[in-house]
Amino acid sequence: GWCPLSLAGVQTTQLLVEPPWRPAVLWDQVTLTCQGLRTTGVTTWYKDGQRWWQEGCDHLTITKSGMYMCDRPGTGLSAPVRILDGWLVLQVPEQMLLEGDTVTLHCRG
């Protein structure tokens, strides 16, 4: 049967990117989701190393390029995610790849 996503095993704050391509590009209307150990509490957002936004919402739609991080009570600061605004970008899927895997690349402009 279908089971809801459990965050019980999450020990660090995760910053999820949609759509799931790296590097993320501004013109994809990127949404960041901040996930931590607790489902309640204020999410603090950082852009380019500075505190940028603080609210209860754990979703953020990106309108400016830069380096983003988020902070959740209990699990702390996420790893950084860079959002580019380049005119040509080669993207790879977000999931981890191993040697021998077949991979689809996006060349976007």
From TrEMBL:
> Which Gene Ontology molecular function entries are recorded, alphabetically?
transmembrane signaling receptor activity
Q: InterPro entries under this entry?
A: Ig-like_dom_sf, Ig-like_fold, Ig_Fc_receptor
- Taxonomically, the superkingdom here is Eukaryota
One GO biological process term is: immune response
- Keywords, ordered alphabetically: Disulfide bond, Signal
Q: Which GO terms describe its cellular component?
A: external side of plasma membrane
Identify the Gene3D superfamilies for this entry.
Answer: Immunoglobulins
The record's annotation in PANTHER family points to:
FC RECEPTOR-LIKE PROTEIN 4, IMMUNOGLOBULIN FC RECEPTOR
Its name, as the record gives it, is FCGR2 protein
Q: Which organism is it from?
A: Rhodinocichla rosea
**Lineage in the entry?**
Eukaryota, Metazoa, Chordata, Craniata, Vertebrata
